Amino acid sequence: MATYLDFEEGIKKIEDDIIVAKTKADEYAVSILEKKLQEEVEKTYSNLSDFQKLKLARHADRPYALDYIKGLMTNSYEIHGDRHLADDQAIVCFLGNIGDVKCVVIGEQKGRGVKNKIKRNFGMPNPEGYRKALRAAKLAEKFNLPILFLVDTPGAYPGIGAEERSQSEAIARNLFELSDLDTTIVSVVIGEGGSGGALAISIGDRLAMMRYSVYSVISPEGCASILWKDQAMVETATKALKITSTDLKEYNLIDDVINEPLIGAHRNKEEAIKVLGDYFIDSVAEVQKLSKEERDQKRYDRLMSLGSFS
C-alpha cells in the first residue's frame, strides 16, 4: 500500500477513483481520471514548501541506497567490515558495474520495517561504518575504480559507544583522506543528508542532490529545539536553514540537482534509479577527461570555495 503525505490527499483520491474505474472496466473514465491525475500532480509538486520537501526526503517509500544498488549494479559483490572492530550495517559497500563502468558504490542504508531499521541503526553509522567506507574507497583507489557515494542519514550515531570509539575522528579522517583520494568520486544525496554523518561520504569531484532531498548541518527539529525550544517551530526552522536542493544549488554548495520524477522517487523508483545512474556515468566520463593535476585542483578549488561570502 502506498503511503500518502498530507499534501498528497488530492492525488490519493484520484488514484483511488482510477482503481474503481479499472475495476468497472470503464476505459473512458480511466483516461479522463489519468489526465486529471497528471494535472493534480503538476499543481501539487510545482508549489511545494521547504517543509513539504523535507517530508518527501524522509518518505517511507523513498528508494534507499540498496534500492539504487540493486537497480543499477551488475556483477555486484558486497564488501564487509572495517578490519578493526565490526561490520556496521548502516553503511553498505559494493564492488561491481554500473553500465560499462566498473566501480565501487558506498551508501548509507536506513532500513524498512522495525527489525531492519534496528539492524541498520536507522541509517546512523558508527565509527566502524565510516572506517569501512574509507577501506572500500581505498580499495577503489588501488584499482583506479570510480566511487559513487549515496548519502542518506539523519546524522552519525551520537551514542556513548560511538563517542568512545572516536566518532568525530572517524568522520574527520574520511574528510581528510577522501579529499586527496586518487580516483574519481561522485556523491549524491538521495534522501536526507544530515550533519557530519553526511559530510563523511560527500567529499569528491561531484556533489549532487536528488530533487527532493535535503542537506543540512542540523535537523530542523534540532534547530527548532536549540533556537526556540519549541518543536512547533520546525517548519520555520526548515525554511531558515535553506536545506533544499534548489537553495543549495543557488548558493553553489552543490554541483547539480538530479531531476527525479516530478511526483517523487517514491512514486517512480525505476525512473529515479535510471536518472541517478545516468548522472554517475556522465560525471565519471567528464572527470576522467581531466589530468590528475587538473582534477586535484578542481577538487581543491571547490572545497576552498565553500563558506565564502561577500
List the helices and strands and how they pair.
Elements: H1 9-23, H2 27-45, H3 50-57, H4 65-72, E1 73-79, E2 91-98, E3 101-108, H5 114-119, H6 127-142, E4 147-153, H7 160-164, H8 167-178, E5 185-194, H9 195-199, E6 206-210, E7 214-216, H10 220-227, H11 234-241, H12 245-250, E8 256-258, H13 269-287, H14 292-305
Parallel strand pairs: 3-4, 4-5, 5-6, 5-7, 6-8
Antiparallel strand pairs: 1-2, 2-3
Structure write-up:
- The chain has 310 residues and is of the alpha/beta class.
- The protein folds into two domains: 39 residues, no CATH class; 254 residues, 2-enoyl-CoA Hydratase, Chain A, domain 1.
- It has 14 helices and eight strands.
- Strands 1, 2, 3, 4, 5, 6, 7 and 8 form an eight-stranded mixed beta sheet that branches.
- The radius of gyration is 20 Å and the shape is globular.
- 41% of the residues are buried.
- The model has no long low-confidence stretch (mean pLDDT 93).
Average residue pLDDT: 93
Strand content: 15-25%
Which residues form runs of ≥5 with pLDDT under 50? none
Q: What gyration radius follows from the Cα positions, in whole Å?
A: 20 Å
CATH architecture of the largest domain: Alpha-Beta Complex
C-alpha termini separation = 50 Å
| CATH class value of the largest domain | Alpha Beta
**Number of helical regions:** 14
By CATH, the superfamily of the largest domain comes out as 2-enoyl-CoA Hydratase, Chain A, domain 1
What shape does the CA trace take? globular
Number of DSSP strand runs: 8
